């Protein structure tokens, strides 16, 4: 494969930003791609895919490159890591100075050696591997392996504006193939990746990009047109928009969060989707108390470790710290205990996480139910990267007596 030096420079710059400036991979890649308007779609895909894959395989790549420092700082080492990655992909490296120290045979031999140690082979920090094994036992191997594969692009049809089959046809007309997914009503999956955000179909609000597992959560809440619904950790509204379509744009949704910029993004998305039944509310000291017993349905899509969506956010492997996990569990316990008071008696709520760890999910719900007997667990569901190819979500449907 022939590389263009400028593209590899862009990848090295992106990696520096992600690892040394502690910036989010998706934001860095977006900025890098915007920096040169002349790059075509292949160049853009080359930069984005190689950067994401190098982040995903960071620990393994350091190992096969024989780089032992904790923090990689020099440009030269980033070039070597890129070179090792391409060797693992079967490429013959160009005779550039930057690759002169790399020995492909040695790289491949070290890859064989890495197979013996899961945390190196699967490229994950020690503490995360230990927690995964402790909480999931034998299942951890399979989930971890599955989370190292690139996730598919999945769309959710906006049924307020179109239907799945018409959307599929409209994509076909612009040369993009999509497939339906059994058991996920409005989902279309792309067998081949494409930039769907630049299409007119997206600008018209005919779909949102949303993992299949995530699409099951709003449906799990059993909402109906005309209800009063609170989405208490709404963020930029992935699930709020879905709730609004399930409610046929009727009734009222209060979408709340502690971050105002996310709610502003939610409003922009709601407008594009033709949604008019959502009101956003920034959470302040008395917000929860004022809304006591006011909701027919309540969604608690709580902040979590994100250990179910590593396929999409591989940089979280290196950015997450074990003490954060402890703190976030505390926040989850506070949210389920305090926010559940917003539910009417006879109403239903869903507690959801994008984590495969039971301590953030089943265990939180069990503890809450035990301490608050007026709430009753109706049903729990999990999606699994290993078993169904979806991201790893957890959802619990709970009723208030
Ligand atoms: C998993 S994300 C939500 C994703 C969103 N529901 C979606 O579908 O796109 C969790 C959200 O909880 C918010 N959050 C963090 N602490 C919170 C708190 N104490 N109360 C409410 N929301 C909180 C975060 O800002 C974040 O947007």
UniProtKB/TrEMBL annotation:
Residues at which S-adenosyl-L-methionine binds: 257, 301
Keyword match Transmembrane helix: no
Pfam families: Methyltr_RsmB-F, RsmF-B_ferredox
GO biological process: methylation
Keyword entries, A-Z: Methyltransferase, RNA-binding, S-adenosyl-L-methionine, Transferase
Xref: CDD domains: AdoMet_MTases
Matching Gene3D superfamilies: Sun protein, domain 3 (3.30.70.1170), Vaccinia Virus protein VP39 (3.40.50.150)
Chain ranges of the SAM-dependent MTase RsmB/NOP-type domain: 143-401
Active-site feature positions: 354
EC number: 2.1.1.176
Single GO MF annotation: methyltransferase activity
Transmembrane region(s): none
Family according to the record: Belongs to the class I-like SAM-binding methyltransferase superfamily. RsmB/NOP family.
Designated name of the protein: Ribosomal RNA small subunit methyltransferase B
Source species: Emticicia aquatica
Name of the gene encoding the protein in the UniProt record: rsmB
């Amino acid at each position: 494969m022939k590389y263009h030096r400028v593209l590899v420079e862009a990848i090295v710059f992106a990696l520096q930003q992600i690892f040394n400036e502690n910036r989010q991979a998706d934001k860095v890649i977006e900025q890098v791609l915007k920096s040169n308007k002349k790059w075509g779609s292949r160049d853009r895909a080359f930069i984005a895919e190689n950067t994401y894959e190098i982040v995903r395989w960071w620990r393994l790549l350091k190992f096969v490159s024989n780089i032992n420092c904790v923090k990689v700082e020099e440009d030269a080492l980033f070039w070597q890591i890129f070179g090792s990655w391409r060797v693992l992909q079967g490429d013959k490296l160009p005779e550039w100075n930057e690759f002169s120290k790399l020995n492909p045979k040695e790289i491949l031999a070290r890859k064989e050696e890495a197979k013996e140690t899961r945390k190196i082979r699967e490229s994950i920090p020690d503490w995360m591997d230990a927690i995964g094994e402790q909480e999931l036992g034998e299942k951890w191997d399979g989930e971890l392996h599955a989370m190292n594969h690139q996730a598919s692009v999945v769309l959710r049809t906006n049924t307020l504006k179109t239907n799945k089959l018409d959307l599929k046809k409209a994509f076909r007309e612009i040369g993009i193939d999509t497939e339906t997914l059994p058991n996920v009503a409005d989902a279309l999956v792309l067998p081949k990746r494409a930039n769907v955000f630049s299409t007119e179909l997206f600008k018209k609000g005919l779909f949102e990009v949303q993992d299949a597992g995530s699409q099951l959560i709003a449906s799990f809440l059993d909402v109906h047109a005309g209800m009063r619904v609170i989405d208490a950790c709404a963020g930029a509204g992935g699930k709020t928009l879905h709730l609004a379509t399930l409610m046929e744009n009727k009734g009222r949704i209060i979408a709340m969060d502690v971050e105002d910029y996310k709610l502003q993004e939610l409003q922009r998305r709601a407008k594009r989707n033709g949604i008019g039944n959502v009101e956003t509310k920034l959470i302040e000291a008395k917000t929860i108390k004022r809304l006591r017993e006011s909701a027919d349905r309540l969604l608690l899509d709580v902040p979590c470790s994100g250990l179910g969506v590593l396929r999409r956010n591989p940089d979280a492997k290196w950015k997450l710290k074990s003490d954060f996990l402890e703190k976030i569990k505390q926040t989850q316990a506070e949210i389920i205990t305090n926010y559940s008071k917003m539910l009417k008696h006879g109403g239903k709520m869903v507690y959801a996480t994008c984590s495969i760890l039971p301590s953030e999910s089943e265990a939180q719900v069990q503890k809450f139910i035990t301490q608050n007997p007026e709430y009753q667990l109706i049903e729990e569901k999990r999606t699994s990267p290993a078993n169904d190819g979806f991201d790893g979500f957890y959802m619990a449907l709970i009723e208030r007596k």
